[in-house]
């Protein structure tokens, strides 16, 4: 964990994340409870996100398993709008329970016709007396059917980004329903939810009417670099497995580790991860020391390079293990599946390239 961008407290957090108990690494609720009990969700307890803390925790959790990392990340994403724009009453009612692991969060942005283009969100919200009424559908929502509460982007006005607002919707709100869940390449709870005359109190509005897009993008920006940290952790685990295999497996009269082409794959993988780590922790450091600054390019570079690098590393590790590398249940096979989604969610690699180019050409 040595880095000019990290402090001793971050090394302690990394150790705690590596040692945190978890009853079932494939059970989001138990994982959230375990993370809360270990104090690892405290970086989401206040009105600002400690981005470096979130990054080192995600790197450590990524080495342990994708579901454990998801459990952590969704607590940050789901509660992010309340941290950024919630009233003191909203923050007091939600954030302590999020940090303690008592409330599991979801973040509902994506729709059938609105993914990368969030300005196309069609789910509507209309004022009705002292309540808001939501109607619409959201898809690919992590923690669907597991979360106790969701932050939801909905349309309250004109077409485009300026007509969107953000709401906090409890899972027991009348008119909220989980329609179905999906079986994904990397298994974790994800599905489609609907709002059918879903009534929530007026106080469920987060921030002001028309600020929804700003709040959503602000939430994503604060945690986007940490996606890269999770990717690094996952790929580190695969590289450790592949390196151990290369030292133990003999071919053509000598260990794979002595074969120069295998050495090249290991060298390229280690270099990819070290470069990714530098970009990720630089971006996180910038956000922590200058939270009001514009760090768009640094954040997008970190997310883009780290997730793409993790994909390259995972692919090389599968190749080093040969037939074992494509066997269900092998660590490198699992990582190969786990890292793939990271190049899509929270801004695809293609979107990150567009963002970076725009910043360079400004």
3D structure, described in words:
With 362 residues, this protein is α+β, with helices and mostly antiparallel strands. It folds into three domains: 93 residues, Acyl-CoA dehydrogenase/oxidase, N-terminal domain (Butyryl-Coa Dehydrogenase, subunit A, domain 1), CATH 1.10.540; 105 residues, Butyryl-CoA Dehydrogenase, subunit A, domain 2, CATH 2.40.110; 148 residues, Butyryl-CoA Dehydrogenase, subunit A, domain 3 (Up-down Bundle), CATH 1.20.140. Helices cover 51% and strands 16% of the residues. The chain contains ten helices and ten strands. The strands form three sheets. A four-stranded mixed β-sheet has the order 1-4-5-8. Helix 4 runs antiparallel to helix 6. The chain is globular, with a radius of gyration of 21 Å. The two termini are 34 Å apart. The relative contact order is 0.11.
């Amino acid at each position: 964990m040595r880095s000019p961008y990290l402090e001793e407290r971050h090394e302690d957090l990394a150790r705690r994340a590596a040692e945190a108990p978890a009853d079932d690494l494939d059970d989001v609720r138990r994982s959230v409870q375990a993370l809360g009990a270990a104090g690892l969700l405290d970086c989401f307890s206040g009105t600002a996100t400690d981005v470096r803390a979130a990054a080192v925790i995600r790197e450590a959790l990524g080495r342990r398993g994708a579901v454990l990392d998801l459990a952590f990340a969704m607590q940050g994403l789901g509660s992010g709008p309340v941290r950024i724009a919630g009233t003191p009453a909203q923050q007091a009612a939600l954030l302590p329970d999020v940090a303690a692991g008592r409330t599991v969060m979801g973040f509902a942005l994506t729709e059938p016709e609105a993914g990368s283009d969030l300005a196309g969100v069609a789910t509507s919200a209309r004022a009705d007396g002292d309540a808001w009424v939501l109607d619409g559908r959201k898809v690919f929502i992590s923690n669907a059917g597991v979360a106790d509460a969701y932050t939801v982007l909905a349309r309250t006005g004109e077409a485009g980004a300026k007509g969107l607002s953000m709401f906090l919707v409890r899972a027991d709100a009348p008119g909220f329903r989980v329609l179905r869940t999906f079986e994904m390449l990397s298994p974790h709870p994800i599905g489609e939810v609907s709002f059918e005359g879903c009534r929530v109190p007026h106080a469920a509005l987060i921030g002001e009417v028309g600020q929804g897009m700003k709040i959503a993008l602000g939430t994503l920006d604060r945690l986007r670099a940490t996606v890269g940290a999770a990717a690094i952790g996952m790929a580190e685990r695969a590289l450790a497995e592949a390196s151990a295999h290369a030292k133990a497996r003999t071919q053509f009269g000598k260990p794979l580790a002595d074969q120069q082409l295998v050495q090249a794959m290991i060298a390229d993988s280690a270099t990819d991860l070290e470069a990714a780590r530098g970009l990720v922790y630089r971006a996180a450091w910038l956000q922590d020391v200058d939270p009001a600054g514009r760090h768009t390019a640094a954040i997008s570079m970190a997310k883009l390079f780290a997730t793409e690098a993790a994909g390259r590393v995972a692919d090389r590790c599968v190749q080093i293990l040969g037939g074992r590398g494509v066997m269900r249940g092998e660590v490198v096979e699992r990582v190969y599946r786990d890292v793939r989604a990271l190049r899509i969610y929270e801004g695809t690699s293609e979107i990150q390239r567009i963002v970076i180019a725009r910043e360079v050409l400004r």
